[in-house]
Amino acid sequence: MLRTHTCGELRIADCGKEVVLSGWVQKSRNLGSMNFIDLRDRYGITQIVCDDKTDKAVYELAKTLSREYVLQVKGTVRERSSKNTKIPTGEIEIEVKDITVLNPSKIPPFTIEDNTDGGDELRMKYRYLDLRRNCVKNNIELRHRLAMMIRNYMNAEHFLEIETPFLIRSTPEGARDFVVPSRMNPNQFYALPQSPQQYKQLLMVSGFDRYFQIVKCFRDEDLRADRQPEFTQIDCEMSFVEQEDVLQMFEGLIKHLFKQEKGLELGTFQRMTWNDAMKYYGSDKPDLRFDMKFVELNEELQGKDFKVFNDAELVVGICAKGCAEYTRKQLDELTDFVKRPQVGANGLVYIKYNNDGTFKSSVDKFYTQEDFEKVASKFSAEKGDLMLIMAGKAMKTRTSLCALRLEMGSRLGLRNPFDYSVLWITDFPLLEWNEEDNRFYAMHHPFTAPNPEDYPQLLETDPGKVRANAYDLVINGTEVGGGSIRIHDREMQLKMFETLGFTEESAKQQFGFLMQAFEYGAPPHGGIAFGFDRLCSIFAGADSIRDFIAFPKNNSGRDLMADAPNVISDEQLEELYLSLKPVNK
Amino acid sequence: MLRTHTCGELRIADCGKEVVLSGWVQKSRNLGSMNFIDLRDRYGITQIVCDDKTDKAVYELAKTLSREYVLQVKGTVRERSSKNTKIPTGEIEIEVKDITVLNPSKIPPFTIEDNTDGGDELRMKYRYLDLRRNCVKNNIELRHRLAMMIRNYMNAEHFLEIETPFLIRSTPEGARDFVVPSRMNPNQFYALPQSPQQYKQLLMVSGFDRYFQIVKCFRDEDLRADRQPEFTQIDCEMSFVEQEDVLQMFEGLIKHLFKQEKGLELGTFQRMTWNDAMKYYGSDKPDLRFDMKFVELNEELQGKDFKVFNDAELVVGICAKGCAEYTRKQLDELTDFVKRPQVGANGLVYIKYNNDGTFKSSVDKFYTQEDFEKVASKFSAEKGDLMLIMAGKAMKTRTSLCALRLEMGSRLGLRNPFDYSVLWITDFPLLEWNEEDNRFYAMHHPFTAPNPEDYPQLLETDPGKVRANAYDLVINGTEVGGGSIRIHDREMQLKMFETLGFTEESAKQQFGFLMQAFEYGAPPHGGIAFGFDRLCSIFAGADSIRDFIAFPKNNSGRDLMADAPNVISDEQLEELYLSLKPVNK
How far is B474 from chain A (nearest CA, A)? Predict the structure, then answer.
């Protein structure tokens, strides 16, 4: 080894030791006859002192070493005269005997500091330098720790990690599949998996009753902010279970991670039906770090002279504690916020519950103080509170009010990223009606089982009302995982395909080998998959997943460092029996 | 849970317990008024008894249940009258109260037994059933255990598992790359990684000084027997190390696995230079479970009247202990063996050292008994031994003799798959001369560092003699892993590219971002990668890797179960701006 110690481990007790350190120059300062170097590695920073009087040659060399040079330093540990209490090695320094330059460095294109001067694009291009920054490095280390914890938990629960194939079959509906031309099977293609869904179900048919995998998945879709064409799932499946068993098992996993990584004891996770989540928070992934529950006000506010409310399917609002003294300007900001195209509301009504007990509202002329009192009472509002009300089509209004609720939560500082609110959403609808095609689609996928209470009767009479045996895990308003109990009964599966408008033929074409496997003793089974990139970001209290991926792609799916994707040679195309079509730009 | 216990856990101490088991019908036997079912799950088999007298209905149902039905069984644990000592649950059985058929099964296309009646192709097509067989299931469980042990060892040694991208850049020489057309970047392609080599080196530049990853890699080459287009590597890299550090670290890993999984304490691994391996075993992956070292006999056997030996560059042989009594037929078999095209020798000379002290040879007429005595003495042969000798061009003869040595090892039962001989091969040549191109190629890759003793002088004067700072791990004659210390010095790298005939331009085009990264403080580093599929097969004493992969492909790269690769739709091709060229068959 080119070192005896790392740059993070020497302490006052090591004084007098002869050591060898290797690392990068974080900073070099010359103070007259002394040169100080902060030497950095993955584990920390240690101060190196070169003294003109001790060794002139080493001192002169040290003066020439600039940022990011790689050095091997030999010397003696000694106590510092002026200690740095901010770092664990801050009580000592190395009195240098010898320095070897292991490699010089050009001046990096941005500073290797938490607050770097490099822009996004530059940092992506030089990702290997960006990864040197503590804040990024820490994320990658966190990711490793979480992966280890997950594997150890799953292993202790008798789950087997089984690798499923990456070169699989493209399905006719797989428009979002990445495909891979096969040279050995010309004009044929593999697909990269969007998830190991079918394979993990096959593993259940095989009898591996507890499977998991931390695995890359691929989706060739237009990337929204913070989506990646390749992403990592914690993919899990169990046999001989009902929904409750799955929820208990993975509630255990998430609690384990919070306990191990953060020392947090999370209580039993709250559960909410999809209906309630939509009704009270306007979202299937409500952020419950704060309350501000929706209150429906059709009864209180319709039937007066305010046409907007009278014409609305739903009048609904939230109560912002202590905001009655919002200024005109602040209220206008909120109105502007809800009118943004991303939120899409027509307007916003406010009712201030003043400290003197009176009400002040943007719709004063339509309502009496008594009307407002009734509304306030429905909100359980107190003096000093601000009620914010929207109206319109039910679903759309709820979605808009959800955006406003989150905005108010942020404004009021109720969304601390290191507070954690974890809940299960259950009882999703099994089917979604598509107006264009005039048919039902599976909300998850066609192997999701209906809630036993709704099958078979309700599926016959009112398919849109059938609840799925499906569940999502939501943390701080983000969907972190989701899954379902699967159909294992052939009759039920055929019924389901029928409801979805598949012929037996088309079902076979799309799901052939899984369908066939189901004829050979498929056990009852269900599972879940978590977005690992997202889970990591939540543990770090961060919004973006990008900095939890060592080498991410940008929003166009490009790796700016490697300049991928890129053209390939004519020989390669030839071998694959492919030709390119011109692109109309 | 649809069970209280698994089918592998009930023991005599559980007698009297009311239990619920779920599993598959392994076997059902009707003995008059009793029906016995062997119920199987991942954990074992438990005997289920349905008694006509106890419950007529259950008994009648039981009679109808055939192989691979999935059952839920409720009943009471009781002691068996006739015990089965071969299985851990053999002392008890379940007296059934109730049976629920969770799912019926068609008769499987082959028996779910270790000795199945299903051929390779059928088993691949119904891989989900093949995986139910104990012998295959055990392999998958072994693989999981090894992966856990590897990760825990690496984690304890402060290695971070860091995921590298799957959608990377295709390099001009990447003829064996699988490519992935990008829809968002039309006419451009990603490549799937043949290994994360460049990314792990970048991680070293980033300062993550200990990286590993158990990761899928891809190679689109014509598949030899027992190669897979997707395979799994244990990929590792370390900074601030020399060769000795890497060997120590991973010798530790392999010892750990043998200790944990098999309770075997392996001693310090033998080391052998590539030159010695070729000279004494005719292979860079010698099987050292048995000795039978090559002995060179030019001195002893040339210069007599036997033209074949006199004309040969090399005369070399092995000594098979106790085989002097081989019959004519056995010796002919050996001659036929070496003449097979796969071995490619012209012939084989034998010298029997008879028990009476005389010698009998196929070349008796050219040599005296004294000549043979000298040869025997060089072999340290004893009475009863058989010496087998070949001659010709040195490299070719060694390779042929290697095949014969392995054959003799097998015939003599010296290659027990559960004996383990582990060794390091070191000092590989850095360069390989290519006669066709009239140029050197890197034996590993152009980032492999030369042995410090051979640089820079020998690289100038005799590049073909330069040893690489590279090493392979060989177990039982199979290369299980290999790696090298990498070049981190820019001067040395340029020198290397020059030797390989690259212009600076072409080097940049192929290795651009890694080359650039090396300008920003690359630390000294090196690493290794192990073939995980192969490692698993060696732990199980098996020859083929296929049964250690849950869903393998066949030798044409096809998944017979999913029928992949396959055609994709015109819409998909359209979206990717691709068209197919006709294939001349």
Answer: 24
